[in-house]
What we know:
By secondary structure, this protein is an alpha+beta fold. It has 2 domains: 1-37; 39-197, Beta Barrel (Sortase, Chain: A), CATH 2.40.260.10. The chain contains 3 helices and 8 strands. An 8-stranded mixed barrel has the order 1-2-3-4-7-8-6-5. Strand 5 and strand 6 (140-153) form a beta hairpin. It comes from Metabacillus litoralis. GO terms for molecular function: hydrolase activity. The active site is at residues 116, 173. Residues 48-68 are annotated as: Disordered.
Amino acid sequence: MxxxxxxxxxxxxxxxxxxxxxxxxxxxxxxVIAVEKGNYSVSxxxxxxxxxxxxxxxxxxxxxxxxxxxxxxxxxxxISVPIYEGTSEEELEKGAGHYSNSVMPGEDNNTVISGHRxxxxxxxxxxxxxxxxxxxxxxxxxxxxxxKVRIVDAEDKxxxxxxxxxxxxxxxxxxxxxxxxxxxxxxxxGNLINSSEK
Length: 198
């Protein structure tokens, strides 16, 4: 009677392994398709529409969609990436994207910039409170100090609300190692501490 126990356990383990491998492969494929179809960008566009309802930038010289507006650098993790106007997949494939309905860097209110967690913002998880982030545009160099690190639901609109002072909000998908369409967002919020106009 005991002779069937070991083969039964082995069979159960094999079936369990096949099931787990299949579900992980499905999640991975679903994530690849989501990036290909721009589901991440759809979520971002929904957030942009929400911000548009709240408040638009006071800057009348808004750049065109897809235009490079500057560079963002984070000295602590030794990265420097271009920033493009807009957050569609086209912009996010080239660098970080600036939410069109948020203010430009250096202006009073909330500047919102997003990037993919597995490309331009893959080192964002190493950034902590009090770390410095610099943004250089044609108008100047703006230095922000991170004051808060948050993890929020993907549909949380509080990351794009207007702010009473010059604020930088960086967002990327979370968890960083998640396969597929991540359910949360990793958010860094910083205040402007220095600006050097050109």
